[in-house]
Specification:
This protein is of the alpha/beta class and about 500 residues long. Helices cover about 45% and strands about 15% of the residues. The radius of gyration is 27 Å and the shape is globular.
Length: about 500
């Protein structure tokens, strides 16, 4: 038996004890996880500094503060989320108890990503714990130091049998995917997402795929270009561009392209100084392989700003590309790095057509003071999320579902959406062995008269208050007796 088989078997055995289903156990685990981020913050910071050159404040800002907020929300709302949910009834079920009961799925596999190794690995774990599941946690092997810290720390704070951490590379992940899980939650790229889905299909395992894609950013010529570019610059170059919802490219009219370039250059200087390489708030590319991949994208485009690089340090300066063609190398795949192409378009109509000809993105950004422009983007495009006049911040709103559509993913999470995504919402109807006359209409022999009664009870809608429901129940009891008597004669 492989190590991966053993880990999954032990997690399932722990789940079958039933202890993860207790709300008290779930809350206790969430509080312990919360304590980890308070007590071991420095170890997390040190690892991320080595992996991605993230600063201490940047680590808290982009990795752990959001997780603490998610944990607080889950603890506060867990009793409400896990409670049976009342649903509307039709006349045939007016006297029955009808509800939805959230229940755990079982053993969940969580495969994390390297760009925000704590945020995108632990956030689904919070949902898995809150929903009462066991979870096997597979950190990205690319973030070597963060994966090791996760492997060392998580078992010290949360139930190591229910929530084991398994590190390793591609062979270990492939072996994990051969095992039977009740749900797989993957964050990463679409190419690997297809492999995850193929493996899951062999067990009919449902999946959540948080992928990415080329998220467009349309800048209207009538907006405040200075503010727009400041926000785009922040969204693009945070984490050295290695953010799944970073604005991938800008669409704007030729008349404002030069102004956009100058404002982005100004913001780069304001954020990262004259020398971003020495700025503690500017990150590094995760590996030399990714460095080479990104630099190869620049070959057939014109650099308008930046372009400096150092392969030995995995450093690429914040870079702007001008007059980029749709067929350019930088437009053929998600950049996931600090290159910002600008594609001139004639206006909103062409921008919408350009967006709609391509795969549906994870995020879509529009900068404009005109509500009609925003509404057209809402109505005439499709994306995982849409944000007007800012970048990235929709990720921080727990009441919004976060997820992709089409090539950018399937399923969603954050807040209650995480709980629901990793729960089975079980439909329940509790009926009493009474009022059998009401059922006579469904029993053979089938007649037009019985069909008429069925149509009445199923298709009629009544807006009833409490007194109305009591009166209707009484009437139905009498009607049941009458119907039953008529079929017995």
């Amino acid at each position: 038996m492989s190590r991966e088989q053993q880990v999954v078997a032990l997690a399932r055995k722990a789940f079958e004890t039933g202890r993860s289903k207790s709300l008290e156990h779930r809350v206790r685990q969430l509080k312990n996880l919360q304590r980890l981020f308070t007590e071991r913050q420095q170890e997390i910071v040190d690892a991320l500094k080595k992996d991605l050159n993230k600063s201490e404040v940047g680590t808290q800002l982009y990795e752990t503060v959001g997780l603490e907020g998610e944990i607080n929300l889950a603890i506060k709302k867990l009793k409400e989320w896990a409670a049976p949910r009342k649903v509307e009834k039709n006349l045939l079920t007016i006297s029955d108890t009808v509800f939805i009961k959230p229940e755990p799925l079982g053993v969940v596999l969580i495969i994390g990503a390297w760009n925000y190794p704590w945020a995108v690995t632990i956030q689904p774990l919070i949902g898995a714990i809150a929903a009462g599941n066991a979870a096997v946690i597979k950190p990205s092997e690319i973030c070597v130091h963060s994966a090791k810290v996760m492997e060392d720390l998580l078992p010290l704070y949360i139930d190591k049998e229910l929530y084991p951490v398994l590190c390793g590379g591609v062979p270990e992940t492939q072996e994990l995917l051969r095992q039977h899980f009740d749900h797989i939650f993957y964050t990463g790229n679409s190419m690997v997402g297809k492999l995850i889905m193929e493996a899951a299909a062999k067990h009919l395992t449902p999946v959540t795929l948080e992928l990415g894609g080329k998220s467009p950013c349309y800048i209207d010529k009538d907006c405040d270009i200075s503010i727009a570019c400041r926000r785009v610059t922040w969204g693009k170059y945070t984490n050295c561009g290695q953010t799944c919802i970073a604005p991938d490219y800008i669409l704007c009219e030729p008349s404002i392209q030069d102004r956009v370039i100058e404002e982005v250059k100004k913001s780069i200087k304001d954020f990262y100084t004259e020398n971003p390489k020495s700025c503690p708030d500017y990150g590094r590319i995760i590996s030399q392989r990714h460095f080479k991949r990104i630099m190869a994208m620049v070959d057939d485009s014109t650099v308008a700003a930046g372009g400096d690089n150092d392969e030995s340090d995995c450093y690429i300066a914040p870079t702007v590309l001008r007059d980029v063609k749709p067929e350019a190398k930088v437009m053929q795949e998600e950049i996931f790095g600090p290159l910002l192409p600008i594609l001139p378009v004639s206006g909103l109509d062409e921008a919408i057509k350009f967006i709609n000809k391509r795969e549906k993105p994870l995020a879509l950004y529009v900068f404009t003071p005109d509500d009609k422009v925003i509404q057209r983007m809402v109505d005439e495009t499709s994306s995982g999320g849409l944000l007007a006049n800012d970048c990235l911040v929709h990720y921080s709103v727990s009441s919004l579902p976060f997820g992709g559509v089409g090539n950018s993913g399937m399923g969603c999470y954050h807040g209650k959406f995480s709980f629901d995504q990793l729960s089975h919402l079980r439909g329940c109807l509790i009926k009493q062995l009474k009022m059998e006359g009401m059922n006579s209409m469904r029993y053979p022999p089938h007649t037009q008269e019985k069909l008429g009664w069925v149509r009445f009870f199923l298709l009629k809608n009544f807006d009833l208050g409490w007194l109305g429901r009591m009166a209707l129940l009484a009437a139905l009891a009498v009607m049941s007796a009458v119907v039953l008597q008529s079929y017995l004669l």
